[in-house]
Amino acid sequence: MSTAVKPRVKAPAKASKGEIFEVKTLVNHEMESGQRKDRQGAVIPRKIIKKFTARYNGRVVFSCDWYPSISSNPYLAFNIKADESGTIQYVWEDDDGTLYEAESKLAVN
Amino acid sequence: MKIKASALGALAMAAVVTAALPGAAQNDQGEKPSFLRNEYQAVKPEKANPLTELISGYFFRSRETQALQDDDFLNPGFLWVEQGQDLWSKPEGEAGKSCADCHQDAAATMKGVGASYPKVQPDGKLANLEGRINLCRTQYMKAPELKYDSDPLLALTAYVRHQSRGMPVKVAIDGTAAPYFEKGKEFYYTRRGQLDFSCASCHETNYGHYLRADFLSQGQSNGFPTYRLKWQKLGSLHRRLEGCVQDTRGETFKRGSEEFLALELYLAWRGQGLPVETPSVRQ
Fold it and tell me: pLDDT below 70 — which residues of chain A?
C-alpha cells in the first residue's frame, strides 16, 4: 500500500501471572522482494521489513528476521508469558532504516 | 472362477466409489475446500435464477483462507477499509468538501447502499460504487476522478460496501436498468477467447469442479472488493473480470467499461440474497 505504514497490534490488556498469551500483529507494507521487474524491464528495488522485535519492559522476548519471500502486509502472531505488569514494545525495521513502532500495556495480577 | 468374478466385481465397485468421491482431489494448500467437505451454507435463489443454490466464493476456498477472512484483525482487507474511513472525512477538491460533509456518518448513511449497487444514476447511466464515488468527486467535490483500482478508490469503495456487510445483495433490474441487465446477461453467456468459454462454461455448469489446479466457484460478486492472496492486495471486481476474460485467451475490456458494468449488474442479480462480505479474502 502506498499510504503511511501503520502497524496494528492486538494484545490482551490484562493477564494472570504465569499465563501464556497470544499477541497478533499486522503491518501494511508492500514487502517488495527485489526480484520483480517493472514494465520497462528495470528491477524494482527491494524494500522489505527485515526485522521484528518485541520487548517486554525493555527485555527482548521475541524477535525474527524477515526475508524477501514474506508476503506483503505481513501478519505475525506469537506467545508471551506474563510475569509482571508493564509495557510491550513492538518494532518493525525497514530496509531503509525506518522504524515502525507500536506498544501495548499489560496489567498482571 | 466364481471367486475371481466376484473379486473383479468388488474392484469395479471400488473404482466407482473413488470416482464418485469429489474429495479425491485436494487444493494446493492440502486442505479440501468446504464445498467439497459439504460444509457450506447456500441461499435459495429467486425463481428466475438459473442456479439452484447460491453459494458464496468463501465456501470454495481452503480453511486457511477462510480463517483470514473470519478474523477482522487478520483480514488484510481491513487495511483498506481503515484507509477509507480516514478518506471519508478528508476534504478534497475545489469545493473543499469531504464525503462526510454531505453523507455524515457512513455507518448510518451508507448502510445497505453497497448491497444495492450497481444502480442507474439520475443521468440514466449505470454506475457501480467506484463510479458513484467518482461522480460525487467530480460533481460535488470538484475533485479529479480517482483511478480505477487505485488505493484510495479501493479504500473508499471497500469502506462504503463494508457498511452493508451481512446484508443481502439486492439490485434493481427493472425500468431503466433493464437494458443493462439484458446486456450483462448476453455477456455472461457469450463464448469468447481462443478457448471459446463463456462465464457460464465455468461458473454455471462446472462450479465445484477443478479446472486443472483451480477450483471453480460460482463466480459470485458478494465479497468484492476482495483481498486476493495472489494479488497481495485488495482488488476490484473489474480487475477479476479482466483476469477471467484473459483466462479465456480473449481480448479483455477496460475496468469501469460499460460492458463490465452491465456484467456486474447481472452478476449481482445472480447472487441476489447472498450476504455482502466486503472485504472478503480469496485465494
Answer: 1-3
Determine which of B83, B86, B228, B229 to mutate to test the interface with A (most A C-beta atoms within 10 Å). B83
- In order, the DSSP letters of A15-35 are E-TT-EEEEEEEE----B-S-
Q: What is the pLDDT of residues B74-112, one digit of tens each?
A: 899 999 999 999 999 999 989 999 999 999 999 999 999
Domain carrying residue B257: 31-74+168-282
d(Cα B250, Cα B70) in Å, to the nearest integer?
A: 35
**Do B233 and B267 belong to one domain?**
yes
Residue B19 domain-assigned (yes or no): no
Q: How far apart are CA B76 and CA B58, in angstroms?
A: 16
**Beta carbons within 8 Å of B214's beta carbon, 6+ residues apart:** none
Q: Which CATH class is domain A7-108?
A: mainly beta
Say whether both B70 and B85 belong to one domain: no
**Residue closest to B199 by CA, chosen among B235, B247, B236:** B247
Q: DSSP per residue over A47-109, as a string?
A: B-EEEEEEEETTEEEEEEE--TTSPSS-EEEEEEE--S-EEEEEEEEETTS-EEEEEEEEEE-
Return the SS3 of A45.
coil
How far, in Å, CA of B222 to CA of A74, rounded? Answer: 25
Residues of B marked active site are found at: 244
Interacting residues of A18 by C-beta distance below 8 A, sequence separation 6+? A81, A82, A83
Q: Residues 28-87, chain A: which have Cβ within 8 Å of B?
A: 28, 31, 71-73, 75
CB contact under 8 A, B73 and A2: no
B132 and B62 part of one domain? no
Kindly list the residues from chain A whose CB atom is less than 8 angstroms away from the CB atom of residue B74: 24, 26, 75
Task: Please check whether residues B146 and B276 belong to one and the same domain.
Answer: no
Tell me which chain A residues have a C-beta less than 8 angstroms from the C-beta of B151.
1-3
- Interface probe for A, chosen from B79, B85, B153, B228 (most Cβ of A below 10 Å), is B79
Same domain, B59 and B86: no
C-alpha cell recorded at residue B49: 435464477
Domain count, chain B: 2
Amino acid at B112: G
- Complex confidence, ipTM: 0.76
> Which are the contacts of B4, defined by CB distance < 8 A and separation ≥ 6?
none
